[in-house]
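Standup notes
- DV: blocked on the single-chain target, sequence here:
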Amino acid sequence: MATTPNQLTDLRKVFYQCRLGRDDLDRLFAMACEGIETPDVKISTVAGSTRYWDSSLADLFSLVQSQASEPDDGWSNLSLEAKTSGGERLVSIVIDTERTEFNVSGSDAVWAYGQSARLENFLSKRGAVTQSPRYETKVSLAFISFFLLLGASALFVDSGEDTVAECVRKAHKAKEDAFIVNSIIGVLMALGLGGAIIQILKRRALRAQLRVNSTIPSGGWWFRLSANERIAAIGIPIAILAAIGALMSGFSDVLGK
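- DV (later): unblocked, structure below
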């Protein structure tokens, strides 16, 4: 495509939840430089109040490790800028613990759109989404809380003042229906609590990650959890079910008296 003087195609996109390990970063940066002849490359990070930069990720990592107190896997930001000497083609990528942003600029619109599509496809395969997940999480937790409140209200609802005879009649009726009532309440509370735990664990597993010296496990969200998180995912629901069972048993004993 013919180029137009003093005019560049400029494309910018922002993504959330990108999970990028060292091998992903190497491939992403190599892809960003493709199509740029003899690119001027600058990869940088800010550790504390100091910015470090070098021409490759490996060299930058060695530099930071030797001069900063940043832990191996504790990097919170990373950026790349690759461009031609005359600025006809430029790719910049900025990564932090919340989002990943890239900007593709070039006098050749075909190259700019193609490069943008390739980068977007690469990030999408590593969990990238275009909307911040924090609002989705709030809506999901609000929906789950409904089940918890519904189950809890069934336990503590006050029917008002009754006569002794009415109380005795209701107690006998409640004793007859105890199994059904307890089962419904238990299911509602189990759905709420279990859903909340799964939601929290899933969000944690799918959160944005930046690892400059290790890889990120592949597979579903369960496989991305640490060993301790998996143990908690199994142990906590069991404890919750036991607590609900004890609560239902105590509730039944009270009604039966």
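- Follow-up: The two ends are 87 Å apart (CA to CA).
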